[in-house]
Q: What sequence folds into this?
């Protein structure tokens, strides 16, 4: 790691925390209120809350780091060829948000030449925050956290947001893996990955994710000692296919990737 | 309603709140801590947290209302032929509890000659409580709440805890109904019913429930203007078959029951 790089991420981490602090009251103002729900072309829902939070965060980034690029779920990409790119999902788990479930979260990543070096997962309704920066332990509400030592799928608690995210040929590998786990459970959105980093569950297997869904998770999971890749075991990047396998240990991750592809 | 009955339930409601106040710190002491997890004969998990909370509550009931019967998930039934029977699920959503998800809850019902006249759903990790008593509006954190005015499945947000609760022939009717909803979502345990009473979602359809899972929900849903029955549209009682259909309005409930049986 080049000298100075770590302190750059410290500054970025403080800024990411400021983004989350600013976003939280806006999201909570709309939470459990009657909202018009629009279905996007991919039939995922969006509300004024998603758009308002993202606009606020993009404004803060533009003002503080005008040279950086931004990719957001609701308002697209700007200057994506910049050395640094911020990636934003203003409300991950919009279906939870619009149904009063407090597990929705804000996701922020900072990419340094395409590599996620900072990830933030913030749950304003739960007042829980995870922050990962490359080369440092992930912080859960400011304290270092660690994924637990589960090395076998037969002993693992595995989460996915919904069986309905596995379209077509993705369904069968997911069923094969998840039914071999000690326990499989649905729901959670980004909160499931945060619980993995926090040592509460052991694995998350999903598909159909977008870069703003999965890139912020990479530093959070890796900084807690876990492993997160695509279903082939390849590092996640802007161009990944949206299939994600995250696990508490290298051994468990290898078993999951192996079974996904067997 | 006989004179005095309502005030009897007021006293019982204050006692139910005292049960929840006593249970909360005990449940939270075990939450997100390493726990030995035992699989019961029905393969549902149980921990020392479930058993400790239930023992505490049974002791409080025995001391305050020695003539009342008690039915609890972990320690069985006592004096079930009493006029009044308390029904307890110390930790509904043990799978959530053991995986760090804060949506688990305490469930308490009071049966008066078999009829649930009081229901309490308490989520200590979320600090949210719903209390329903027959003939009075359901209270959400002490304030009256109301299910919303959704009358058609095509407009409804529908929850179920997991697709895995629908065994054998229960699967197809659930798929038929849930895929006709505007949105279907998994996860939530008893919290989904509480969100229905709170006007956040519109329907919950489940199977495989036990009396301590569903009886406490009846006064909570009905006191918020909603409808909750078995899949045939019959009132829920100790002898129901564990299939539950809850909806925000009579019209939506009728459509769901109709489709479950078509």
A:
């Amino acid at each position: 790691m080049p000298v100075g790089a770590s302190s750059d991420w410290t500054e970025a981490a403080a800024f990411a925390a400021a983004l989350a602090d600013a976003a939280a009251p806006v999201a909570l103002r709309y939470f459990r209120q009657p909202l018009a729900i629009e279905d996007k072309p991919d039939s995922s829902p969006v509300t004024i809350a998603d758009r308002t939070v993202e606009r606020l965060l993009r404004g803060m980034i533009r003002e503080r780091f005008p040279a950086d690029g931004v990719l957001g779920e609701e308002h697209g990409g700007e200057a994506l060829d910049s050395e640094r790119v911020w990636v934003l999902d203003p409300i991950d788990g919009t279906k939870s948000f619009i149904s009063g479930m407090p597990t929705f979260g804000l996701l922020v990543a900072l990419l340094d030449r395409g590599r996620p070096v900072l990830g933030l997962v913030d749950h304003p309704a739960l007042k829980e925050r995870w922050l990962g920066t490359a080369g440092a332990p992930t912080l859960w509400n400011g304290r270092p956290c660690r994924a637990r030592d589960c090395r076998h799928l037969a002993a693992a608690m595995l989460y996915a947001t919904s069986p309905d995210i596995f379209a077509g040929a993705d369904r069968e590998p997911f069923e094969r893996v998840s039914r071999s786990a000690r326990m499989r459970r649905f729901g959670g959105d980004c909160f499931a990955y945060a619980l993995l980093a926090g040592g509460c569950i052991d694995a998350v297997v999903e598909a159909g994710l977008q870069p703003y869904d999965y890139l912020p998770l990479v530093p959070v999971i890796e900084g807690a000692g876990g492993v997160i890749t695509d279903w082939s075991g390849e590092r996640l990047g802007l161009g990944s296919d949206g299939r994600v396998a995250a696990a508490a240990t290298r051994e468990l991750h290898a078993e999951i990737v192996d079974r996904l592809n067997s």
User: Anything to note?
Assistant: The interface with chain B takes residues 32, 45, 95-96, 98-103, 126, 157, 159, 162-164, 183-188, 191, 195, 198, 200-201 of chain A (CB under 8 Å). The radius of gyration of chain A is 17 Å.
